[in-house]
Every structure is written in C-alpha cells, then in structure tokens.
Amino acid sequence: METDVLVVGAGPVGLALACALRQYGVSVRVIDKAAGPATTSRANFVHARGSEVLDRLDALGDLPEESVRAMTITTYAGDRPMMQIRFGDPGLGTAAPPMVISQARVEARLRERLAELGGRPEWDKRLTDLGQDTAGVTAVLADGSTVRAGWLVGCDGSASVVRKLAGIRFPGVKVSERFLLVDGRLDPGLDRSGTSGWTHPDGVLGAMPMPGDQWRLLAYDSTFRDDKPDEEQIAERMRRILPERTGLTGLRLHDVTWASLFSVHRRLADTYRDGRILLAGDAAHVHAPFGGQGMLTGLGDAENLAWKLALVVPGLAAERLLDTYQAERRPLATQVLRGSTAATKVNIAGSPLGRFLRDQVLMRVFNQAWIQRWTTYTTSQLWVSYRRGPLGGRGRKPRPGDRIGDLACERPDGGRTRLHAELRGKWAVLGDQAAFEAARQRLGDQVVSLRAAGPAGGLAMLVRPDAHLACKGGPAELARWLDGALR
Predict the structure, then answer these.
(1) Which among 453, 449, 452 has a CA at the least distance from the CA of 438?
(2) Overall pTM surpassing 0.70 (yes/no)
(3) Beta carbons within 10 angstroms of residue 131's beta carbon
(4) What's residue 172's pLDDT?
(5) Nearest alpha carbon to residue 463 among 441, 480, 478
(6) What are the respective helix, strand and coil percentages of the chain, to the nearest 5?
(7) Spatial separation of the C-alpha atoms in residues 405 and 408, rounded to whole Å
C-alpha cells in the first residue's frame, strides 16, 4: 500500500482532512488536477465552528489578526437603512472567533500546517479512473500512473470526479438564476464595520469588506444572459448596476482582482460512502452561499471523518465505524440545504407580494434582538449535536453527541490549558486516573488526561477529537462505550 489515505482535492476540505490525518500519524497523499493553489475564492467567511476546527488542527495561526471583523449586516432600500443584524458571541464557550477572510488565505494556512506535518499537495494530478477491492483502492491518473491506497476520499468539489467514478447519485434542483461576483476596490469607500446590502426590484446587491481594502460585491442578475462572459464583461455589468441598485451615483468600482458568475443549485449525494471510497465537502453537498455555510460544513465533514479513519486504519476500530460519518453529517447537510435555499428564495423574491413580505415584514422581524441572537447561534454551527446518531445518547446534559465548549482545564502536572487545545489528534478524558486508564487501554496514545470543573456533575467525560461528548461515567461506562463504538 503506497499510502493509507488518498485525498482527491486540495481545497479547504481536502487540506483539513489531510492535516487531521497527519496529526494522528496516518499516511496521506493529496492530489489535485489544478496546476497550483487557487488565488481567488467564492467563500470568504469562517464562522466560529470553522475557526474551532482550524484551531484544533493547530492551523488557525494569525488568520484572526488578518481577517476583517465585520460582524454586522445592514440592509438598505436606497439610502434608507431597513434592518441591521449584529453577529456576536452565541454564549457557547468558544475561544475561536468568526472571520471575514478569503478561502484562498485559509487554504494557504492549511498548506503551511500540512507542510509542518510532513505533507504537501501534489498539483497537476488528474484522476481518470478508480477501482476498489476488499484491501484498498487503486486510483489511475491522467499521466498513466497509479496510486494504491487503503482509502480514498473525494474532496474535489461539486463536479466531483470521485463521486462520478464511484457511481454515487447527486440529485438536486436549480434554485436561482445567475449571481454576479466581483472582488475589487470601491470609491468612495463604504462603512467597513460590516456588510451592506440593498434591496431592489431587479435583485439584491451586497458589499462585504475584505482584507487589504478590498470589497466583495454580490448581485442577483437574472437578466444577464451572456453565456460565456469574461471577467471584464462581468465587472462592467457590476459597474453599471451598482449605482442603480444602491442609489449611490458616485460609487465607483475599480482595481478588480476577480469576477465570476454562478447559479445556485441544491444537491445532496445519495450516500457519503461506497466501500473504501468516501465523499466530503461540496463533493457530497452543494447549496446557496447565503449564511456562509459551505466551507464551514465541509470543514466539519473533514474533522468528523478524520478521527474515524484514524481508528480504522491501524485496526483500533472496525470499518463499520465509518458508517457513523454519514449518519452524523448527512442530516446536518440536509438542514443546511433547507436553510440556505429558504434564504435564497427570500433574497431573490421577484413578485410584488414576495418583496413586500421581505422588505416590510421580515426586515422588521430580523431587527429584533432575540432573532439576531438566534441567527448568530444558527449560522455558527456551534449548536450541532450528534445525540440522535448511532454514537449519541440520552440522559442529563451534556448528552453523548453534544458539543463540549472550550473548557479551562489542567494537565496532570498542574499546567493550565484549554480543552480544545488538547484535542489536536487526541481524545480527552476529563476525570480521574482510573477513567483515563480505561480509555487508554482501547485508544492507546490517542487520549490525554485532563481535569476540569465541567458540567458533568463529577462524572468523568470522554471527549471525542472533534469536541463532542462520547460518554460520561466511571471507568466501566467509558470502557463499555468504547467497546460498543469501536468493535
């Protein structure tokens, strides 16, 4: 076997998966058909849950300092502000901030972290065929070479070659016509403390501040019918509709660095696993960009899958543990698809009644403080729980499957630390030495011992590497849970 895991796709999901696997000591290769790293990206917001994943990969680095802390969205009708949503701390115990930063920069930081772990993406490696047997997967590349791996994970986007070669269906529907997407500078500058949006009968337009004095402009434009416009044509179209939609006749777009267009589709793979082939990120689910859930959901997929592969590859767990990956992550993707589709339909409402409901009813509702708290809570994905999945459970909170916040902890030597800082390729036992020993007998060096004044009422807690509670109780309960989950 040339490598334990072959990852196809060197975007944020593939890179995060590779970093996580390397933290566990699993050998991994990452290939991508592109000639080199992307310099532009559609995703430009990382919610708190995504920042937590990067932190647990030790890949967060100085991204928070580079990012723009634009945590408000103000919606206008002309020059009249109609609604302002303020994002804030949802009160769920996180030390990882939401960030306005380009996907390209996130990918660069993940490549740096992968290099620290002894890996690197291999560019200009296009997958053309694959086959699998009971022992592994054979991938055939365009240059005629092959790669033999124990497992293969498709992180190669919505047009996934892995998904197509595996014969996995990807049903869905088209949700909207075209959106224009342009990155550039604006003169005179808008308020950079948050995103500005404008409602208009012809479609919404939004402007989000980006690092480096850049702005990202997004506009719904169902009348733009040019089949294959180049970047300058898209930018020129944005320049024309910008004053029309905003009412700011002196606003000028210049120094455009990227322009693109897209239509919104909603698709969900029938299955996330076919034998030794798995899917993650956009290869498994695609949806509207509203709410910034795409990269966030993909990063969660990568972290969830990584710790399970890291147990299956060395034989610490049976292969059936990988079935819990789909069982835990696919229901979340279904919820995200529903929410982002609803947000898209609201934003592109074209009928007089639809615009009235959006502009006169929903705008007022979303100005309420409790709705804004709910919005922050929902989009952060810090609420995600697997308690209803095959590894979840019932009882007093926190329940098995619930996320555990970034608790202040102590190591056995008395040193102070944070729970999430210890979950870097590790499980954690918050409890006595006997509980730790019960876990170590089954997990080996993949578990650390900590002490914390947590919410478990004196019971030991076994916390998964993705910061979700595995179980709580004494040594016997921890041993019983691990035996049931891993065998």
Answers:
(1) 449
(2) yes
(3) 12
(4) 86
(5) 478
(6) 35, 25, 40
(7) 9
